[in-house]
Design goal:
By secondary structure, the protein is of the alpha/beta class. It has three domains: 63 residues, Winged helix-like DNA-binding domain superfamily/Winged helix DNA-binding domain (Arc Repressor Mutant, subunit A); 115 residues, Periplasmic binding protein-like II (D-Maltodextrin-Binding Protein, domain 2); 106 residues, 3-Layer(aba) Sandwich (D-Maltodextrin-Binding Protein, domain 2), CATH 3.40.190. The chain contains twelve helices and twelve strands. α1 packs across α3 and α6 packs across α12. The protein is elongated and about 70 Å long.
Length: 298
Amino acid sequence: MSDFRLEVFYTVAKRLSFTKAAAALFITQPAVTKHIYELEQQYDNKLFERKGNKIQLTPAGELLLSHTESLFNIYRNIDFDMNALVHKKEGILALGASTTISQYVIAPILAGFRKKFSAIAINLMNGNTEQIEKALLDKEIQLGIIEGRSKHQEISYTEFIRDEIVLVCGQDHPLAKKSELSKALLLENSFVMREQGSGTLEVIDYALKEIGMGVSDLKAEIHLGSTESIKSYLMHSNCLAFISIHALTNELQRGTLRVIDVAGLHIERHFYFIHLQGKPDGLSEVFLRHARLTHHLK
């Protein structure tokens, strides 16, 4: 339904590369150049300018990008609403999920959704909470599921499911058979930590402050970017780590990792659906309803 020239412009604006845009759209680079030139003639404004070997948006380009994103959202909603009249639900949903959710929570939800709504394609972006929030603000995704506390006024946060973050060590760790650690003993041990920007790290820091300390007080031996790498590291070291209980099902069943309580410390959080302020678009609403129903029936 949209003007193909606007699709070309949007693709170039998001990639800041005529070559990458041509590859993404399966057209030639001269064709990309021609479409951009025609838009510039139509609006009597340059949309891109060169900075050395790179291009960047002009103020006119930034304005057109903003309108194009809004227009494409309208087109998506029109397609959804019109298809709904004939009992069809189809389109493409750009979804983002932070690391723990994408690895341990979302797969069965996605599988069930695809069985029920086979005409809705899903493009899933993975990243930490900070990256998923940025992708939403940049309108690269329509809906996100994240771990962490709300920050941005432009984003609407809706509770999804509850999570607990627990202290974990390998089965051969000297503390593996201890039922509870004191705060002092916590400070004496080394930790495997998540990277900055992780929603998990933020929640841990918030909870530790309740018992008079913070993440910066813990001895970090190494920072790793995924829960799987953290679990593997724990099995080969004398470190501790805070990990979501959702990520530990297999290891706790096999006994390769152990959970240790910390006196006075209980770390609970929610996973959140996020969308830009206002009513979510039609496809996002369908996915939200499905995900809530899936969790409710568990």
